[in-house]
Specification:
This protein is α+β, with helices and mostly antiparallel strands. It is built from 25 helices and nine strands. The structure holds nickel (II) ion (NI).
Amino acid sequence: MNETMMFEKVFRDPIHHDIQVEHPIILELINSKEFQRLRRIKQLGTTSLIFHTAEHSRFGHSLGVYEITRQILNFFTRQYPKDLLGDYGWDDTERLVTLCAALLHDVGHGPYSHTFESIFKTNHELLTIDIITNEETEINQILKKVSSTFPFEVASVIQKNYPNQQVVQLISSQIDADRMDYLLRDAYFTGTEYGTFDLSRILRVIRPHKDGITFNASGMHAVEDYIVSRYQMYMQVYFHPVSRGMEVILDKLLKRAKELYLIRPNYFEKSSPLMVPFLKNNFNLEDYLDLDDGVLTTSFHMWSKSYDPVLSDLAKRFLNRKPFKSVAYTDETKKELDLMRELIEQQGYNTDYYTAEQSSFDLPYDFYKPSKENNKTQIELIQPDGSLIELSRTSDLVASLAGENKGDQRFYFPSEMLAIKSDTYTLFEDDMETFNNMIQNGAIKKTKEVNTHDN
Ligand code: NI
């Protein structure tokens, strides 16, 4: 115990100033090769192509989640000890398992996770569990120094079936250490002001409860502010249409590579050997841990010189940041998309690779949606008489945001289509009406000239 108390190492951080590592096991986990790999994976993937300073890594975010959790546990230990409060208090013997789960919650993430997972059918949550429990990893060896069952305890926190729900909800709930860190960190590194909220206030009103985590009613405005910030980050940053336009290119590029591999495996074994286990859909954990942003970027460089014009063109578009453009469509205007695809095909593009329908509803979705059936994840305030009230029932602001599906559906196509000129019309981005008029008047069909232009 004394040895643990004396141990301290500090990581400097722009969000939390000092991240204090107070246990040797935590430092060993940070120094493991599986955790160091997170330095080489950008937290926001293609969003960094829109917000140019958003180059922060999953490594920094993971340390940040650890630090927020550590601060909460210090506060709980001082204010709400189990010795005094029984089931309503915090049991500090849970500290190490909670901190390990906080630190490792994203360790299974790979490069450009969302797109990579949809093409290659990987799953970062299952991979996180595998990295923690697989005897081949350094992380597993380190956790086993605590006890032989400790890796499984850490894994069960992340899988949300750990018996102590206070521990689970600190890492995973509507207002947990993970979300608090990424909102603040992503707001800071994108340079936007939307995601900021009063973390220090939230860390004073959070408290343990019998089956989880609640907030003092006096802290309602701080919690409300967090929900509004989250909403704004989704609308302004995470659902950014141009970032999605780059994701569409990445999606089509990986899809093309996967299809070509079936015909020309030798080309990929030579040009991008670390991608081969995924292209042939036969990978193990070691193959997965070899991946990072750099491996993908290098593969794209190689593919940009490929014999295949589609693979080469899509790789160049990704490397040189030439996003597909988009128009928003509704259920009524969706019928026009067939015509748009026809026009795009007339210009010589294969619409399987050069058009996409993409809905922000398909992106990882995290607005606040309280529901009676799923009351473990709703935010509850504890009132002076000790009763709990769900946040949207007491905050009009949150009520107006909660439960609604907000987002859009967009049709993506090559930006060169915007430069197709006619006597009467120029097509502008985001202008479905113009596009429809052009189609009805045959304006596009008359046009032969295609100018490429920069975005
Ligand atoms: Ni996270």
